[in-house]
Amino acid sequence: MNNVAGKVAIVSGGARGIGGESARQLAAHGAAVIVADILLDEGETNAETIRQAGGEAQFIKLDVTAAASWENAVAKAVSLFGGVDILVNNAGIYIPKPIMESSEEDFARLIAVNLEGVFLGTKICAPEMMRRAETAKVGSAIVNISSAAGLVGSRNAPIYSMTKGGVRLFTKSTALEFSRKGIRCNSVHPGLIDTPMGGMLLNSRGSEGSNDVRAAIANSHPIGRIGEDTDIAAAVVFLASDDAAFITGAELAVDGGVTAI
Ligand code: NDP
To answer: Would you give the DSSP letter of residue 94?
Structure first.
């Protein structure tokens, strides 16, 4: 299971949170990983953690909103590890404001990171991923991190939800465009996950430190708890792996059942 051995992965937002754990799990299953993030210290630390555990990893600075930054990431992946087989478009930002309080700057920032970042990563990594797929047993894979808020609307973060809904359909279009070119593309839709961003969501509903708020949100997930970065990373590794060879254009809710209600 989870066959990614010998593959090369770029994980955007790979310094910490869901991307950080996805990078660690991909490496633990045998992939060489480019940990790509704007957070320099945390990114270096995560790559070092992977190496200490016996995996292959290199940190590179990546701003997903800049095409030149992506071109640099692909060039590094090729020169260090020989190519790119897996792209995890994970980097994202969260701005929990209702429509009437959202500014044009908020809107532009969310679109730039959550949507343009995914478009640029996909477009700029695709040629190298197609080249690798020509000689691979199964081919290459893109995993886009959307959200439960990309499946249903959000009271707290409507513009964020708009971007994540966009990621969901861009995933399907990417799958269609690349299905005969050796690249599969699927989306993962997390519920509330205990990461720094998850803490922002808890804060937006009340005090992050408040056990009452945590308990209420945990209870709102049918499974009865808040998610962990490991829950999402396991789904990322599966969809990136050759075990998911016939899965493309799919959306996988990893949300403790919140969107099943
Ligand atoms: P975190 O904020 O913990 O980690 C995201 C990482 O991406 C950070 O290191 C962040 O740096 C980085 N990043 C932000 N902007 C850029 C950029 N322009 N270029 C490169 N890296 C960038 O978030 P999570 O791990 O929680 O979230 C990961 C993904 O999962 C996101 O797409 C998010 O929307 C999604 N998600 C998360 C949920 C949750 O509850 N945590 C729920 C549903 C979806 P910095 O801190 O400097 O911004």
So the answer is: -
What is the Cα–Cα distance from 99 to 14, expressed in whole angstroms? 30
Tokens of 176: 């269609």
Q: Which atom of ligand 1 is nearest to the CA of 63?
A: 19
Helix (H) / strand (E) element for 167: namely helix 158-178
Give the atom of ligand 1 at the shortest distance from the alpha carbon of 91: 7
Domains located in the chain, CATH noted: 8-191+228-254 (3.40.50.720), 194-226 (no CATH)
- 232 Cβ below 6 A of ligand 1: no
94 catalytic per annotation: no
Q: Is the CB of 11 inside a 6 Å radius of any atom of ligand 1?
A: no
Q: Please, are residues 9 and 23 in contact by the beta-carbon 8 Å criterion? A: yes
Per-residue confidence in pLDDT tens, the chain, 261 aa: 779 999 999 999 999 999 999 999 999 999 999 999 999 999 999 999 999 999 999 999 999 999 999 999 999 999 999 999 999 999 999 999 999 999 999 999 999 999 999 999 999 999 999 999 999 999 999 999 999 999 999 999 999 999 999 999 999 999 999 999 999 999 999 999 999 999 988 888 876 557 888 899 999 999 999 999 999 999 999 999 999 999 999 999 999 999 999
